[in-house]
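Deviations from the work plan: none for this task. Representative record:
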Amino acid sequence: MKPRSQQPDDQHLTEQLGATGLRLTPQRQQVYDVLRHKRDHPTAEEVFIRAKKSMPEISHATVYNCLDALVKSGLARQVTLDRGATRYCPNMHEHGHFHCDVCATVFDVDLPEQAMKLPKGFKADHFDIAIHGVCADCAKKK
Amino acid sequence: MKPRSQQPDDQHLTEQLGATGLRLTPQRQQVYDVLRHKRDHPTAEEVFIRAKKSMPEISHATVYNCLDALVKSGLARQVTLDRGATRYCPNMHEHGHFHCDVCATVFDVDLPEQAMKLPKGFKADHFDIAIHGVCADCAKKK
DNA sequence: TTTCAATTTAGAATTATTCTAAATCTTGAC
DNA sequence: GTCAAGATTTAGAATAATTCTAAATTGAAA
């Protein structure tokens, strides 16, 4: 039976990271936990601040390194909206990001099952779909 | 008959900008021309360097302002890929951006006609679709 | 236990973007 | 034609986001 301290599934993390030639380190675990704990698409800076709460000695460069490692190994995604800082999302199901232009909240939205038509010979690895508009709450207020 | 010096259609630019409460200035015209001249999804810095060739006195802040104005008035789109600088695209037809992870080239790709299913009450303004993968040329080389 | 490569650290440095105050420009009113 | 007002540009300075660096640390394999 798995030790209760191991969560969500260290073995899974180790496997995913290992498949990319990377190790699961306490810092990477922490950064991953931060992403999973509050799924509000935080920036690297926000992740850094949150991670420092439980791991005061973690550094900026480490947070960037950890985020890169998680993205590279398929444990997180980058969300790039407009010209601000890149955000991060631990939801690895195929989905899009709805960005409300009023309250600036980012929502995960499901995608229709649809094969994108690529030019001949192109090979797709993944899709990043961002939708800009107004969320239900902000639409109501107008 | 329109003067040949006016291109692609200053009246159209003036109208689009005007609809957003903005003016068509020589700088905005120049930045727009830069985007249309070489459609390689340049960064603000690249646009700045290119614009300076014909307009040496243009400043950084102006280029950012001009790009913002073009985006705001529907004459250009922002392309955000990974954590680098934002890129710009003058193609206002609904399309996606294919980013080759090998040669870092960005290609415009057509989108299937498909209505995205949004959560109830949400209102979409536009979509930004980025596809990451390998282009035909780089796929061949492997 | 030792070695070695991966990783972290703490800043420094670079890149990307925004801000500021003064100057300039354009348009409309008179 | 002049003037006023607001938009815009300018030239840096400043801030934000990200990357780099060299030394230290860590963990796994030998």
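The first helix of chain B runs from residue 10 to 18.
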